[in-house]
Every structure is written in C-alpha cells, then in structure tokens.
Amino acid sequence: MPEVAELPHVAAQALAGMIDPATTALVVVDIQVDFAAPQGLAATFCDDLAPIEAVIDRIEELIAAAREAGMTLAFMRVVTRPETDSAALKTLMERRGMPGGEAICRAEGGGADYYRIAPEPGDIEIEKRLFDSFHETDFDAQLRARGIDTLLMTGITTECCVDSTARTAFHKGYNVFLLSDACAAYEPHLHTGTLEVLSQNIGLLATSAAVLEVLS
Questions:
Q1: Residues annotated catalytic, as ranges
Q2: Residue with more model confidence, 171 or 43
Q3: Residue pLDDT, tens place only, 12-30
Q4: What CATH number should be reported for the domain holding residue 174?
Q5: pTM of the full predicted structure?
Q6: CB-CB contact of 204 with 180 (8 Å)
Q7: Domain span holding position 93
C-alpha cells in the first residue's frame, strides 16, 4: 500500500482554478467528544489520540481561513438516542459480540458534544444518527440553497463517516475534495486505503496547506 504522500494530490496552483469560496463548503465531520477527546469513548480503545489531535489542529486553521474567505462551513455531528438507534447496527454489534456497542455520541451525557471546534451562527449544522451526513437530513437542501457545488471534506473517521458522506456527495453531483491531512482514522492503514479508493473513484486529494495557500 502506498503512503498517503505518494497518492496523487492537486497542487495549490491547480486547486486555485477548482475551488471558488462562494460555491464551496468546508465540511467538518464528527469532531466530537466520543470520537476525539481524552474522556471520550474512542480513548477506551485507541491508545494514541495524538494523530487525531494533529488533524484537529489543521481543521482549526482551515476553519479560520474559510471564514476569512467567506466560505460556507458545515459541521456534521452524530447524535444518538436509544429510541432511534439503528436496528441493523445493534444487530451487527451483537453478532460481533459487542452488545451495546452502538451507544456512542448520546444526546445526554456529553459524548455528542463538539470537541475543540464549534459552529457559529450562519454555519450549517447537521445532526445525524449514523455515518452518512446526507441520510435523513436536510444537508443537501441547505447546500443547494447556498449555491454550493464543491465540498472540501475533513474530519473523522476517514473510512467511516467521511467516506460515507463523500460518496453520497458525489452521487448527488457535488465536486468532492478529500483533504488528506485533515482527515484521520484510528488505524493508519484504513486512512490510507480509503483515500486511495476515494481518489480513484469519487474525488480528488489535496492537502490543507494547498487549500490555505489558495484561500490566502
């Protein structure tokens, strides 16, 4: 498997002709307590959250630059409740020998709260039950109301919620960019493998540095 840096990326000079802040949204996926914070659920099975923290550092820079450029910001967040838990996910967890494993990012208890980042008035905010930010939400409608045709994907985890959202975005006609150093997975090979597959099928890769150069 190649390293992430070995995968084809769009350079800043070319990227400048592909993204217009007026029609582009920076999508921030699931930067939440349970997925990223030391006190969250992920910390119980991931020994080293430093790579996640480094990605959030980059996302913070991107958010600031996007605001300065007048770009739309969209914050995705998983919010779960016992009464709306996915039956399929519960069954999957039980068959894996993990009953109750679906109880993550509960509306009560703080696990669903944003971690380190937060939307501001006027930003798009999406609450979702599962992985895909478009599924049973008004995300598509909100993007189209603002004239958005291009998405810059960031967040966690690359192989799950970022992947699911990016694929649906492509199928709905959006131009998709994966910011390879502003996404992360708990296992590096899942991050790299997902970026390789997505870059071959539904979008282009770029770095946060390239985006920041364009926006500046």
A1: 30, 128, 161
A2: 171
A3: 999 999 999 999 999 999 9
A4: 3.40.50.850
A5: 0.94
A6: no
A7: 4-215
